[in-house]
Structures are given as C-alpha cells and as structure tokens.
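> example.struct
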C-alpha cells in the first residue's frame, strides 16, 4: 500500500513538471493564408499573404545583447511587442504601406519574447528578427 502511494505521488509530480515545462507566458493564435514562419534561438521571421491574430516568437540573448529587426505590411495595421524582463512593452507599430528597420539594444541575458498582434486582417507582410552577434 505504501509503495503504491509513492508511485502515484511520483507519477503526479512528473505529470505536473511536464505540463509546467510546456507552458509559455504568451500563445500564438491566428488565421493566415500564404504563411511562412520560422523561429530559432537566434532568429525569427514571418511572411504572409493574409494574417489576423497573434504570433509569438522566442529568441535568446546574451547580457547587453541586441536584436535587429525589419518589417513591412501592404494593408492593415499591427503592433509588435517584446518581453525580456517579465513586462510586455511596445516595440513598434505599422500601418498600411509602412516599413521599419531598427534594433532593440541592451537586452538582459535570456529569453526575449517577440509578440506580433494585428488589428484585424493584414495583407502582404514580412517581419524579420535577428539576434545581433557580439
């Protein structure tokens, strides 16, 4: 009886650890047509014909690191946020026909979440994020 309890408790603990490890602070949820995207620890991009929703990327930086980024959309509007220290902050906004190219500097070591949120349906967009190497 005692062994059964120990086995059950260990199984529950492993399940909790597995579920907790798979949880992320932000979730992607979107509708897209002609959509391509990629995310590694050093870069992320998305290119779309149509996109409506939220896309989340996770990059990793070293202390004092930076992320170079560029983006453009033909129609619609979107806002890109980042979170590197537990607080979601606006990085930039884009409206129809606009583009941006810049960098996010002096980041702490660790995960940086890039969150792309549209305000309705956007058309013909490209967004690119690359961790700058020292």
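> example.seq
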């Amino acid at each position: 009886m005692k062994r059964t309890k120990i086995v059950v408790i260990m199984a529950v603990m492993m399940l909790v650890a597995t579920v907790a490890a798979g949880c992320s602070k932000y979730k992607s949820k979107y509708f897209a047509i002609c959509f391509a995207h990629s995310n590694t620890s050093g870069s992320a991009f998305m290119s779309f014909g149509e996109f409506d929703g939220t896309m989340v990327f996770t990059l990793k930086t070293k202390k004092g690191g930076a992320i170079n980024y560029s983006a453009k959309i033909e129609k619609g509007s979107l806002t890109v946020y980042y979170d590197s220290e537990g607080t979601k902050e606006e990085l930039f906004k884009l409206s129809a026909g606009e583009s941006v190219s810049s960098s996010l500097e002096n980041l702490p070591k660790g995960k940086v979440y890039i969150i792309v949120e549209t305000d309705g349906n956007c058309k013909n967009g490209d967004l690119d994020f690359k961790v700058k190497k020292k």
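> remarks
Residues 58 and 92 are 17 Å apart (CA to CA).
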